[in-house]
Amino acid sequence: MDRISFNGANVVAEQLGWNMTKGWGEGDAAATAYYSPIATFEERFDAFISKVVASGFDHVDIWSAMVSYKWATDAHIAAANRVLSEHGVTVVSYGAGFGETPDEFRRANEVILGLGSRLLGGVTPLLYSDREATLSILAEYGTVFGIENHPERNPKELTDKIGTDHDGLITATVDTGWFATQGYDPAQALRELGPLVEHVHLKDIRAAGAHETCALGDGIVDIADCVAALRDIDYSGVISIEHEPEDHDPYPEVVESRARLLDVLAGRAPQHAA
Predict the structure, then answer these.
(1) pTM for the whole thing?
(2) Burial 50-87 (b: 16+ CB within 10 A, else e)
(3) In the chain, how long is the greatest CA-to-CA distance?
(4) Distance CA 268, CA 52 (A)
(5) How far apart are alpha carbons 193 and 187 in whole angstroms?
(6) Structural domain range at position 155
(7) Fewer CB atoms inside 10 A, N or C side of the chain?
(8) Is residue 272 assigned to a domain?
């Protein structure tokens, strides 16, 4: 559990000059326009991965807008792998939405396998419109779909969607910030979900009822108890630091979050900046 990753969704507002005023879709569209041209993709993806490495990370969760199943070709994936190999960075998961049709979901599976991982951490309407196709595609590719909690108010709502017929193909990607937004103790949620927890987006927020993210330890999420909960359930995966502000560059706060998390993992009291 000592592996920590940088969540690509942290930079949702970057192509908007850290001024996202129209919601997530605006950031997604701007990132798509920025990353999709193959002529500039490798250089731009390299700039992102270079900043991730400079921030102290050698693991990354790829936000789907950066290497989207909607437009990524084999050339994009080959270029991404060159960059990742050059910097010694490992892809942990592929995050966000994964389409509404079997063909779209199949392509998302191809992309994450192409990037050297097998974990899809996010959402797909296909799970609810055609569960059989979802499970069949996951089995075909040998991948795992970890549903990320956003609207779910408690672990039961998440486990109801995971179901019992998944044979380990459908699990949970727990976003601690979203459980806190819903007014549910994230550490308790982790304990209740137990072995269903496939991946963790460790996120802090300012207050319940809204979703203003902040550096770990600056909000209402008990980071130390979340780490304790992960130990309680014998979680051995990667912890992804997620912080996606709409109005400023998150990199300094993500670096601070990593330092605080390392303190917690080592049993030290986190040193907060003045």
Answers:
(1) 0.97
(2) eebbebebebbbbbbbbbbbeebeeebbebbeebbeeb
(3) 53
(4) 25
(5) 10
(6) 4-265
(7) C
(8) no
